[in-house]
Amino acid sequence: MVIGVRPDDGTAPAPVELSASVVTNMGQARNAILVWSADGVIAVGGSWGTLSEVALALRRGDIPVVVLGGWRVVDARGAPVPGPVHATTPEDAVRLAVGDRPGSAGPGPVGR
Description:
The protein has 3 helices and 5 strands; from the N terminus they run ββαβαββα. By secondary structure, the chain is of the alpha/beta class. The strands form 2 sheets. The protein has a 3-stranded parallel sheet with strand order 3-4-5, with helices on both faces. It has a two-stranded parallel sheet with strand order 1-2. Strand 3, helix 2 and strand 4 form a beta-alpha-beta unit. The longest helix has 13 residues. The protein starts with a strand and ends in a 14-residue tail after the last helix.
């Protein structure tokens, strides 16, 4: 099942890939709803909304944050900021995000 948490008012058709939609009409503020409803965050790509989801998840601090093909946050010296784990494939991202849960197949993210 795929549930979409939509930032809009729901008047536009939902993507066909969704099994169900939660309409928030909150714009980007819906990112906080996503993060606080998640057991882990896999950020795909590099839009500004994706960066805000990564930041909110890292601020939350008790869930894995995995980045797939997107943002690499660095400090003023160019060193990677600790926190997000980078994956190279979708399968790797899922393994890193949920791999250490009961019934899973392996270890989760390093440094969580």
